[in-house]
Design goal:
Elements (H helix, E strand, L loop, with lengths): L6 E6 L16 H6 L15 E6 L6 E5 L1 H10 L4 E4 L2 E4 L10 E2 L7 E7 L3 E2 L4 E7 L4 E6 L5 E4 L6 E8 L7 E7 L6 E2 L10 H6 L11 E6 L13 E3 L16 H10 L16 E6 L8 E2 H13 L4 E4 L1 E2 L5 H12 L3 E5 L18 E8 L13 E4 L5 E4 L8 E6 L3 E5 L3 E5 L2 H17 L2 H4 L5 H14 L7 H4 L7
Parallel strand pairs: 6-10, 7-14, 15-17, 15-19, 16-17, 19-21, 21-22, 22-25
Antiparallel strand pairs: 1-3, 1-4, 2-3, 5-18, 5-20, 7-8, 7-11, 9-10, 9-12, 12-13, 22-24, 23-24, 26-27
Helix pairs in contact: 4-7, 5-6
Length: 488
């Protein structure tokens, strides 16, 4: 097959992810069974122009590569089959401020900056972005060395308009404005204090060790751990071409941070506790090793496996792209099996919720914060949007909003776990989403009758009804917070 014209698609039955799940698609069963990886494709279905890469079920969703000619043959042979392009999603963590698009003109030497935490401990491995002309994207960037220093080619500029510092762990991200150059003294960053109260612990309080008992939560993300505060009960890697057993973090730290918010079991000041520390956490890695994009096929496959594994709740702190039939079908199947899927609304500050949170069967979550809990000069403090009934509470200016928003959670300046037994601060609807998932796990675990309901649509509907009824408004308006924050 010529790979120059071949593209990747998902093949789905008319409804759901499997032909057996829908009488309308039963006639496609034999054809779906005949399309398997490593098997020859009949000429009538595309022949050598179609290659099956992976499948979730023998009679269900498949990832294929095919030419335009093969697609025409397949559509003729099976008009009821849905042929969906492979598309990709990103995590819903607030991204870095934007890398400098232009570099200042070269000049003799380079500007050297040093960063430390109180006590003269250097901050190594931090990403530093310095803008000498922020409006036009002129500046430079680099990573700090072991001694906390970074060399930046700033063209002899006398001032940095905006200086962003993003540490990997241990300290709060920093934003400084109008930094005069040269600067001989180190710049101080605030160390993370696990005994302090961030927005998550303020709005949820510190959970008793048994909260969440009996509830299983699937984290569909970049992988989780290893981290001693976040034990795993299993999971799967659904990235095509990677080991299904490799469920740990892919290098992006995101999934581990998300999982810690839901169910970390540490004890301050040496560790961190999530909202429902007794839940069984399962990791479903959908982002490839070192990668920042997740395929709709990998996501749909992860949801399907999480349902089969007995998850009660599925957390998806990811988004982007148009409405996708594959992920939508997976969410519908999950709801029909009694499982609630909770998704981040997105970080564009837009009057439109991103996919898959915008799917009517998913729970869309916005992000809020609290001003008096953020260190001075922290990047998180820049996220202040509309204020609530208590003017110290604010809706994050980056949080997408609109009619599909169902709930909101703390998502600004959130301390949680990252791989290697460490902790970091992140912002985003990515953080608000697991806060709502953890709150939902608490409510579900406390209701034995609800937890024991037969797994079906009635169960997932009843879980959502309980969560929506428990939510309280913080005064941001329904288009921003939906029913509100589901904890007293």
């Amino acid at each position: 097959m010529s790979t120059s014209t071949a593209q990747r698609y998902l093949l789905l039955p008319p409804r759901g992810l499997q032909t057996s799940a829908s009488p309308q698609s039963m006639h496609l069963g034999p054809m779906m069974l005949g399309l398997q990886p490593q098997a020859s494709v009949p000429a009538a279905l595309g022949g050598a122009g179609l290659r099956v890469i992976d499948t979730v079920h023998e009679n269900g969703i498949k990832l294929v590569e095919m030419s335009d000619a093969a697609m025409l043959k397949l559509r003729l042979a099976a008009p009821g089959l849905r042929i969906v392009p492979e598309v990709f999603y990103r995590t819903a963590r607030l991204p870095m401020a934007g890398l400098a698009a232009k570099v200042a003109p070269a000049a003799a030497g380079a500007t050297v900056l040093r960063f430390e935490v109180p006590g003269s401990t250097p901050v190594a491995g931090a990403t530093v972005i310095a803008y000498t002309d922020y409006a036009n994207g002129i500046g430079a960037q680099g990573r700090t060395r072991k001694d906390g220093s970074v060399r930046l080619a700033l063209g002899g500029a006398a001032r940095i308009q905006r200086l962003y510092v993003y540490p990997d762990h241990g300290v709060w991200p920093l934003l400084m404005r109008n930094v005069a150059l040269p600067r001989s003294k180190p710049i101080a960053l605030a160390r993370i204090d696990l005994g302090a109260t961030d927005a998550l612990r303020y709005f949820a309080a510190r959970a008793p060790a048994g909260d969440g008992q009996g509830v299983t939560v699937g984290i569909v993300d970049t992988g989780v751990g290893p981290h001693g505060d976040v034990p795993l009960a299993g999971g799967a890697n659904t990235v095509v071409g990677e080991s299904p057993a490799d469920i740990h973090d892919n290098g992006e730290q995101h999934g581990t941070h998300v999982a810690g918010i839901v169910g970390a079991r540490g004890v301050a000041p040496a560790g961190m506790r999530g909202l429902a520390p007794a839940v069984a956490l399962r990791s479903y890695r959908v982002f490839g090793a070192g990668g920042q994009l997740a395929s709709n096929y990998s996501i749909a496959k992860a949801i399907d496996i999480a349902v089969s594994d007995g998850c009660d709740l599925i957390n998806m702190s990811l988004g982007g792209g148009p409405a996708d039939p594959a992920i939508s079908a997976a969410i519908a199947d999950a709801r029909a099996a009694g499982v609630v899927v909770i998704c981040a609304s997105g970080n564009d500050g837009a009057d439109e919720v991103s996919q898959p949170a915008a799917d009517s069967r998913a729970v869309a979550v916005g992000a809020f914060g609290r001003k008096d809990l953020l260190p001075a000069r922290s990047i998180s403090a820049e996220a202040v949007g509309r204020l609530g009934k208590d003017p110290r509470n604010f809706m994050a200016d980056f949080s997408n909003h609109g009619q599909p928003v169902d709930l909101a959670g703390p998502g600004v300046g959130i301390v949680s776990t990252v791989p290697g037994g460490r902790w970091a601060v992140m912002d985003g609807t990515s953080m608000a989403c697991p806060a709502v998932t953890g709150a939902t796990a608490r409510l579900l675990a406390a209701d034995a009758a609800l937890l024991a309901l037969a797994r079906g649509q009635q169960r997932s509907d009843a879980i959502l009804q309980k969560v929506f009824q428990a939510a309280r408004s913080l005064g941001f308006g329904a288009e921003y917070e939906g029913y509100g924050w589901p904890m007293k």
